[in-house]
Amino acid sequence: MSFGSNFLKKFSAKKYAWTFVIVFLSALIIPAYFEKDTEYDYNPKAVEIKGSTITGYKDGKLSWLIKAEYVWTGRSKYLFRGTKISYGQLFDSNGKVIVDKLQAGKVRVNTKSKTLTAIDNIVAHFKKRQDRVSFSLNSHKPTGKENQSAKTITITSDELRYYSNTKKTFLTKNVVITQEDAIIYPNEGIEIDNDKNIGFIEGGFVMKTDHYEVTGNKMTIYIDEEYSYISGGVEARRVVEVTKNVAIDERERDLKESETLLLCNSMSYSSVHENDIVTVSGNVSVIQKNKTFRADYGHYNKKNDYYELSGKVQVTADSLSWLLTKDSEDFSNDDIKESLERPVTVNARHLTFNATSKKLELWGQVEVNQNDKKVTCLKMVYDDPKNLVQFSGDVKVKKDNTDTISCHLLKIDLNKEEFFAIQKVSSVFKLKNEEPKK
């Protein structure tokens, strides 16, 4: 009996000790569990509010404002749920609106971690910094007039997470970004630094407009500057257009009806004063029907209708007929006809094309190669309206490895089918041996 009594006493003491430990741990764990921002909250509703506004503050400044049809809380005083979000705004560290007209099916707010999560049918409008408006803490109304024509970036998705402490917004799941006439489809989502007003896309994307489609690995969108930077395996395809406009040049019509492919390592795009500017760099290739342009860098100015390639520029083409309005078969000069129909490779350091004046210029160690001739010079210009080709600066022409011409300026008038060599002209011709007549 003595042994049994001692055993029971020790067992009971251990039992009470373990019970105390379990109760103590439960007291620590359970509150933490209910404060977690979980995907689903099974807590019974403690407070219900219909047609209300949730506002969050950080350091006395607004962090978010959400208008919901229905709001409720559970046991935790830190968690709020809302449905049918009709209007919402997010704010930067200075208390200015960074995201406007936020809409969502559901929202979860954790006031302890200062995070906001919205799901289902997300619509958010990100605005340029100069177009943002400050917010009145008392009236919940903008303090200044909004620019109704201000450019915005509209993003739709299935999920949005906003972290007030770091001022970061993450949109994921079926993200679609609309920026003026461009629509961007990220493979994964977009992260936005709200204080800097910069968006980051990683993991690949597709961007579509009415005229082209661009793919790449990464994109950085500078919302304030209306500037975007794309990198990693960049490909841009121009959409083929079938046009019946008889007023446009036949060469332009042929170009529009053929695919154009641009390849490069990186691309930047900006819109300044209603003018689009595109810059490309790194292994630049422009592939068109029967011709290819290669360079280290490229530049396009839409307003000026101006194109530029620089670095190691190379143009390869099956022929030169794409430059001319006149068909090569219509030329009576056999030398010109043959030159236009032969494949050609042109090397230079710079190439520019002004679509308004229709002038193509190449300069810097220019070298034109065909299988029967080679032309080198400092600058080459093709004036389309005048149908005139001009080589200038230390011009050298070598044909069939025998005949040579050196001069300062060489002009080829394609209308008159004439050649002109001007200044410091020298030539060497090898006479053909003819068998004497019997």
Overview of this protein structure:
This protein is mainly beta and 438 residues long. Among the domains are: 35 residues; 137 residues, lipopolysaccharide transport protein A fold, CATH 2.60.450. It contains 3 helices and 26 strands. Strands 6-7-10-11-14-15-13-12-9-8 form a 10-stranded antiparallel beta barrel. A hairpin with a 4-residue loop joins strand 22 and strand 23. The chain is elongated, with a radius of gyration of 35 Å. The termini are far apart. The relative contact order is 0.05. The N terminus is likely disordered.
CATH topology of the domain at 38-174: lipopolysaccharide transport protein A fold
Report the average pLDDT across residues.
81
Order of helices and strands: HEEEEEEEEEEEEEEEHEEEEHEEEEEEE
Largest sheet, spatial ordering of strands = 6-7-10-11-14-15-13-12-9-8
Question: Which strand-content bin applies to the residues?
Answer: over 45%
The biggest beta sheet is recorded as: 10 strands, antiparallel, barrel
Rg, alpha carbons: 35 Å
User: What coarse outline follows from CA principal-axis ratios?
Assistant: elongated
In total, how many beta strands?
A: 26
**Judging by the overall fold, what is the CATH architecture of the domain at 38-174?**
Sandwich
CATH class of the domain at 38-174: Mainly Beta
